[in-house]
Design a protein that fits this description.
alpha/beta; five-stranded parallel β-sheet; elongated; 14 helices
Length: 279
Amino acid sequence: MHRKQWIFDMDGTLTDSMTVVWQGAPLELLRRYGREARPGIHDVLLSMGMVEGAEYLIRTYDLPLTLRDYEPAMRQVIRDLYQKVELKPGVREMLARLKAEGARMCICSNTWADQCKEVLTRLGVADYFEFFCTAQGAKSKAHPAVFHEVLGRLGGSDPADAVVCEDAVYASRTAKQCGFYLIEAGIAAARRPVHPRLDTAGLGGALRSGFIARQELQQHENSSGEAHSGPPHCCLLKLLFQIIPQRRPGRRLPSARHRHPRAALHPELARCQLGDCRQ
């Protein structure tokens, strides 16, 4: 099993930007205007869409902004915070390995494509990706169209022969329903149980970050007696599917306090919050 098309989300999947950027942005915006955030601000914003969140911040903290002013001001804050973002452990090595094996890769993110390219260029991995796609509006990852579009741009046609790496429940659900081979990383994977044998082997944390180093996979295979077939990243897929239960239809969705940290800030997640998206 050797898949040649890989579709990556960026925030929370390849980079540690979920906390640094998307939870830090409202605090930094308030700081720039000399305001101090009240306790529980994140819980409040998690229950709101972007416009509602903007209105809340402007009204509650008496910010000298209109709704028209808010988006460019917040985008500048976000752009600045991205300067602090780093790759998750193992990502650089994984991308190099996939590239060496002939995989074709792209970024499909809710974050603006130019912002993704800027971040990944600074981190030295932008050249691994053939293009950067902004998944907003009609191209929301709540709907299959954007996944099929980027698959075609990567030269693929059958979702079963491609991989989607995601951290958002709603996007993961869409990809799975389309028939893509799915790796759930970051936030989505962090809430799922990890096999105790892997925790004992020290792999639980790596799985929750979404990736496992090649040598750790080999150690696991040697200790478990499982035969190795195909390249290391295929073993990663096999292992993830063995130990991370997939979301079952009808399962209760996360409450408002567990929704996506970007929900009150990001244009698309204003309508499509984690676990609260309707197709």
